[in-house]
Amino acid sequence: MLQNRIFRAIRLSVVKLLLITCNVLTGQILNSGSSPYTILEFVGEGRFGKVAKCLKKSTMDTVAVKIIKKDAFFIRDTEKELAMLKMVSDLNPDHANIIKFFERFEYMGHTCLVFEMLDCHLFDLLIGRNWEPMSLSEIRSVAKQLLVALDALKRLGILHTDIKPDNIMCVNKQDCPLRVKLIDFGLAQVVSSVHPGMKIQPKGYRAPEAALGLPFTEAIDVWSVGCVLVEPSGFFFGALACDESFKVTLTDSLIFSLRFFFV
User: Fold this and answer.
1) How far is 114 from 232, CA to CA, in rounded Å?
2) How does pLDDT run across 110-124, given as a tens digit for each residue?
């Protein structure tokens, strides 16, 4: 009897550890209400958990599954992201250049979000080009797609607030390298809920009005797009533009200068 209780206690502890650490493995099958998903490989990992490239067994389509750690902090953020995704789902994701969201399900206590499988981040595309600057026509193509995405979000009253190369993905870098989509709505905000002084946007892509604690609008996302587009242009000596400390120093210097116009 004692051995059985010890065994059950150990088993429960192991299960809890798996839930917390998001310990899922390649080849494992994730069961949702609509279809089993087989994990083919992991393509990303962060504080929130992991992103897996999966095969949807019912259709044999390849999808991306974001597997969230069982943690109150990440669960709260996931619920916010889901609320944004539901709002965005009213858009045509291909026309709006926004990642396609399919479904949410629970697996071993983890929240799993299923998205279309995209190819690589814009940052990875630049690395693949050995930091060779993009031509003006290439930058114009990417800019148009991102601004179409922002226009669609503006109509819904949504601020993305986290636009950076890691959140812009190429759909298929081999066949159509400059076809991009905006991803990751984990930090998105409804316009009516924001206020001056909020800590918002990543450094290096933060609009001056947000950094100065002034009232801001959807225009802060346009500033971030501008910062992103400078990087592949080679304007700041190629790879130097993608150095985080360089971008932060440059932005801080600009904001310091702008302070004199608001005193």
Assistant:
1) 30
2) 899 999 999 999 888
